[in-house]
Design the sequence.
């Protein structure tokens, strides 16, 4: 357990991909079987056992630590596993810590009733890093910035192989992967099982900058909408005589098939055959593309109810065709792939799968006008679900990763208003212990004259240095405290103005102000601006009316159950 | 009968002793200021008379210039001084070189002001001395039970282990220019690290001063004496301010470490982009804060700065009469300024 805990600890602080690879590869090359196999399983999300709930962990600690001290500590640290790992009282004498294999094997067999006692034994036997790693492992996701793909890449390095070789055989292997390690270290026979629906990393775009507009020839590019959903690859393989194997992969290669049985039915048909579609997951109701907020209801689920499927009908908007009938189309130029895609989607005639239309344009100025007003440029009522434009070179092959040159994304300009900071709360994760979550408001005429009314909350947009300044400002200008929340002095004479950028605005019955911002962030801190000069609610409602003149889509907040 | 508030009150400049007519660690200019230690948030300029240990006064001069006050008075550890109606003495606080607790006594009633202190071993300064008292004024920079610091030598071993795995990367260690930087240098020498340790210019005057006071910091060299590329695989000590300004980018594939008590909490390490957090603190951790409050035997506890709420709660449960002071101007980031420029 110690080597695994040390690995997680280092990985959780290491942002650089190559350094992460070295850390993982070193672990996989030096830890003995079967521990390293279970470590690999943990990193690739392949461990299946009953997870301890945060509630149980909290209960165990509350038996040992004063509740006030626990709450203050939790508020400061942010993360529950870390708080418990740090607060767990050190036993007078430490037993021998369990190995990772022992932990995994025990978790698979321990009864629910015996689990708290087992967990206590382990926590007493481990040091603080070990406790933290154990709690991360058993309370669910590790959240250390390592994708399954990255772990497999490190594994490939151990055996001096290509990661594609690993992906091909990954399907069907189970922890602790002893045969896999034997093969990679030339100690055992080659593994040959072929993944019929492998993940091929998607092609990504760079932001489109002014200098790109000056340097590039618009006639060499094709434009289409950038839909505000979830990028996926829908992969189906081995159809025909064999049963279909189909998978839906997120852009990082996570298999999200289980959450979308409705779409899986569409990609396991004979007509779909053995093909790979690149597209965007959206919720579409009555031909209207819903906003990201609606789609969110269907994300991060291991299973999905029939009610959920009916209420949030999923749709795939196709961007590209990477393989068809077993043929790899990725080397073809975009125009050729696009022709194959159009034919393919037409032949499917599936209401769940549609093509993302090409947006014609004359030159970059014309495209800028289209970007500024997608509604008028053909997107119609679906404009709120459009994040901007994608530009693709007509002659470019499909290249995994983010190659410079062939693809660009050109997002819509955000809206801006000046608001006044009203409340601050300590953040979580990276921001815990600092006041970093801010509720802000604008002026509105109330019964007792002008008053601030909250219109949104944001916890990012500023630099770490600005965060330090904001935190100090909150501490020195606190009007009152309610648990973790501080009310900040905010009136006509005193208050901090924050310039807020946001992507969209919806009517909201849940909010007193009647509006809800999408993706609000603090774009500037206006230390210079008097609070009385911040914007008024009328300014926001005017934006709402302007945006909605032609739209009839349901506002997202009303669509929530 | 003397009460604590007879000997110590709070003014806008900080802690003040009316019968002795002096401030302690005043945050703005006063007539007579007694300084616990030379960190910039406690040792400011602009006072008439400053009374402190010789090391503290020397370091204040190094940092603030020779004209930092009108009159200096050197106090030796343990020396008894009469100021007005009270007797005052300075005792080692174990925080940094020259750091002191200040004891105020009248009619057998004794108040101890801890300044910043630690109980853990530090090869660069005199160890903390327990002075029993009636009222104890403590810091609480790390006043939460999550701050139970690991063995500093084990933390240093993490640095050496990383150097073995990433032998081509410059390991840049953020450390406060006064105290922490010299402690890390001394710890490396004691651990038998036999390569030169490189340092950022801002650390030079203080490293020289520690060496002049007879503290062997090993083979240390200024970074300007080498080309950045030549420092692949070496240890470089830098100020937190330099790290924040991207100074480390000049080195080959720099790996950023930082030695600070804040590194005990992951979020704090991530906030400043640290890849290798080293929990090496010059402050008392929670167990030491609690143990010290008991060791001095005081019935009354004042908490000057830091995470005051938890310590006050703990003391109350222990039957100690406790109150937070929350003095603005010390503490939080300033005490171990991971978010601020080192002076």
Sequence:
């Amino acid at each position: 357990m110690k080597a695994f805990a040390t690995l997680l600890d280092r990985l959780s602080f290491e942002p650089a991909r190559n350094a992460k690879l070295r850390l993982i590869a070193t672990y996989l090359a030096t830890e003995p079987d079967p521990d390293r196999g279970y470590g690999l399983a943990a990193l690739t999300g392949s461990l299946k056992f009953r997870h301890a709930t945060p509630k149980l962990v909290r209960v165990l600690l509350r038996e040992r630590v004063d509740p006030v001290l626990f709450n203050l500590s939790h508020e400061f640290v942010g993360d529950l596993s870390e708080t418990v790992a740090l607060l767990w009282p050190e036993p007078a004498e430490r037993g021998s810590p369990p190995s990772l294999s022992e932990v995994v094997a025990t978790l698979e067999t321990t009864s629910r009733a015996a689990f708290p006692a087992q967990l206590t034994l382990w926590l007493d036997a481990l040091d603080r890093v070990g406790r933290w790693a154990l709690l991360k492992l058993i309370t669910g996701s590790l959240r250390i910035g390592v994708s399954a793909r990255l772990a497999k890449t490190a594994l490939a390095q151990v055996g001096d192989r290509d990661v594609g070789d690993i992906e091909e055989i990954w399907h069907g292997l189970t922890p602790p992967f002893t045969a896999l390690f034997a093969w990679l270290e030339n100690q055992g026979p080659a593994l040959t099982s072929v993944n019929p629906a492998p993940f091929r990393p998607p092609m990504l775009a760079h932001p489109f900058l002014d200098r790109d507009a000056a340097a590039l020839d618009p006639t060499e590019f094709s434009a289409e909408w950038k839909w505000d959903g979830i990028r996926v690859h829908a992969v189906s393989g081995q159809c025909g005589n064999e049963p279909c194997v189909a998978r839906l992969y997120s852009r990082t290669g996570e298999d999200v098939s289980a959450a979308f049985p409705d779409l899986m039915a569409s990609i396991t048909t004979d007509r779909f055959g053995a093909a790979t579609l690149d597209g965007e997951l959206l919720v579409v109701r009555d031909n209207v593309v819903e906003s990201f907020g609606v789609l969110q209801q269907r994300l991060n689920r291991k299973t999905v109810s029939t009610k959920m499927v009916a209420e949030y009908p999923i749709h795939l908007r196709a961007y590209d065709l990477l393989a068809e009938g077993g043929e790899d189309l990725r080397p073809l130029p975009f125009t050729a792939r696009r022709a194959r895609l159009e034919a393919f989607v037409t032949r499917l005639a599936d209401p769940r799968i549609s093509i993302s239309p090409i947006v014609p344009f004359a030159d970059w100025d014309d495209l800028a006008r289209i970007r500024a007003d997608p509604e008028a440029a053909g997107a119609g009522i679906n404009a709120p679900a459009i994040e901007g434009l994608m530009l693709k070179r007509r002659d470019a092959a499909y290249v995994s990763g983010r190659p410079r040159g062939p693809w660009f994304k050109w997002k819509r300009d955000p809206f801006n208003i000046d608001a006044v900071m009203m409340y601050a709360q300590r953040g979580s994760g990276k921001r815990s212990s600092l006041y970093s979550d801010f509720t802000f408001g604008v002026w509105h005429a109330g019964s007792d004259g002008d008053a601030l009314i909250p219109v949104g909350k944001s916890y990012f947009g500023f630099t770490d240095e600005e965060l330090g300044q904001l935190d100090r400002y909150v501490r020195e200008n606190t009007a009152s405290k309610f648990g973790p929340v501080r009310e900040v002095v905010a009136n006509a004479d005193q208050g901090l103005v924050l310039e807020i950028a946001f992507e969209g605005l919806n009517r909201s019955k849940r909010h007193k102000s009647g509006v809800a911002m999408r993706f609000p962030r603090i774009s500037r801190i206006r230390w210079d601006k008097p609070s009385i000069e911040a914007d008024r609610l009328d300014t926001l409602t005017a934006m709402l009316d302007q945006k909605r003149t032609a739209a009839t889509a349901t506002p997202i907040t009303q669509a929530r159950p | 009968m003397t009460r604590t508030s007879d000997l110590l009150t709070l003014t806008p400049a900080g802690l003040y002793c009316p019968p002795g007519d002096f401030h302690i660690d005043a945050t703005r200019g006063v007539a007579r200021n007694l300084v616990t230690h030379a960190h910039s948030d406690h040792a400011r300029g602009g006072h008439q008379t400053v009374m402190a240990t010789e090391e503290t006064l020397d370091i204040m001069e190094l940092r603030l210039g020779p004209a930092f006050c009108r009159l200096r008075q050197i106090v030796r550890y343990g020396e008894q001084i009469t100021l007005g109606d009270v007797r005052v003495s300075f005792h080692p606080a174990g925080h940094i070189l020259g750091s002191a607790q200040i004891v105020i006594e009248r009619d057998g009633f004794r108040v101890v002001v801890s300044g910043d202190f630690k109980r853990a071993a530090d090869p660069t300064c005199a160890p903390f001395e327990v002075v029993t008292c009636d009222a104890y004024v403590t810091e609480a920079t790390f006043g939460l039970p999550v701050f139970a610091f690991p063995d500093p030598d084990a933390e240093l071993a993490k640095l050496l282990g990383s150097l073995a795995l990433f032998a081509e990367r410059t390991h840049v260690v953020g450390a406060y220019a006064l105290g922490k930087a010299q402690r890390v240098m001394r710890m490396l020498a004691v651990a038998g690290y036999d390569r030169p340790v490189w340092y950022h210019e801002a650390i030079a005057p203080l490293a020289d001063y520690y060496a002049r006071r007879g503290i062997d910091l090993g083979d240390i060299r200024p970074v300007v004496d080498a080309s950045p590329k030549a420092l692949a695989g070496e240890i470089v000590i830098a100020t937190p301010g330099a790290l924040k300004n991207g100074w480390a980018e000049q080195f080959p594939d720099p790996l950023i470490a930082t030695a600070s008590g804040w590194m005990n909490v992951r979020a704090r390490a991530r906030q400043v982009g640290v890849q290798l957090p080293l929990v090496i603190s010059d402050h008392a951790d929670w167990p030491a804060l609690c143990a010290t409050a008991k060791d001095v035997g005081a019935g009354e506890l004042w908490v000057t700065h830091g995470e005051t709420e938890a310590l006050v709660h703990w003391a109350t449960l222990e039957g100690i009469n406790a109150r937070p002071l929350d003095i603005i101007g010390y503490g939080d980031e300033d005490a171990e300024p991971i978010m601020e420029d080192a002076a």
The longest helix of chain B spans residues 152-165. The domain at 4-146+282-324 of chain B is CATH 3.60.15.10 (Metallo-beta-lactamase; Chain A). Residues 332-343 of chain B have pLDDT under 50 and may be disordered.
